[in-house]
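FORM 7B: Structural annotation worksheet

SECTION A. Query
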Amino acid sequence: MPKTILIGAPIDSGQKRPGCLMGPAAYRVAGLAREIASEGHGVEDWGDVTLPPLQEVACPNPSVHSLAETLGWTKILMNRVDDALSEGGFPIIMGGDHSLALGSVAGAAAFAERQDRPLFLLWLDAHSDFHTPMTTTTGNLHGTPLAYIAGRDGFDAFPPFPVPVPAARICMFGIRSVDPAEKAAMLQHDIQVNDMRVIDEHGIVAPLRAFLTKCRSEDGMLHVSLDVDFLDPSIAPAVGTTVPGGTTFREAHLVMELLHESGLVTSLDLVELNPFLDDRGMTARLMVDLVGSLMGKKVFDRPTRSK
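SECTION B. Predicted structure
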């Protein structure tokens, strides 16, 4: 695996519950760089991105808030992720709320286009995030990145997405909270949705391997966007959008181990960690542990903790 490049994205503007801006610091304190290095990988920390001067921008939907800030973060992250990939690195974007994926995936898509390779997207999340700025009723733009990535209308204020990712190259995994408007739009786009019902019936391995096989057969680059609420809140409480019935410790590590074995992942988001809501850092440590599995650590390699 190429050198890992850590990019902090202290973003709170995509939703209304403060705290996600502390995420990058929490990942550093929890030892993310140390965990990556312990698996034999080079790692650089490029620090946190900072918000550029804001431009005046308006949205016809009056419920949308913090549009100028979100647009600024999108542009700076798009460039930073593109830069990291262009240097041959493996960028990990430490968030920050999920609106950061507006920029991180756009950066990966711009790089993939120049490489003449298709970009695939694995969305590990309780939510589909398939609203547009025109359809959201909460006004929270962390619920819009997948719609932007898939090429839905309504993002006139944003830079045109480099190459919208076709539905066949998007896999939603762990979904369990979708409102009717999002569901209708997702059906029109025919995006593969592996909700918790699918996982309960078929397990983690079969649907994930099928998606990875497709990515490999097309020589695809794979961006993974991991939301804390992909995990069950009993093991990962530090998120403002808890949804019961998430993946277990074992299921989440299995996903990461399968991703490592595939060798396909080229960039990663870690999103929606709100340290203010955590219990003595348990969620941050678990997310770091999951990155360890993505980097090659096996569950049977983990030392037994004293009781």
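SECTION C. Observations
The CA atoms of residues 72 and 229 lie 25 Å apart. The radius of gyration is 18 Å.

SECTION D. Sign-off
Analyst initials: ____
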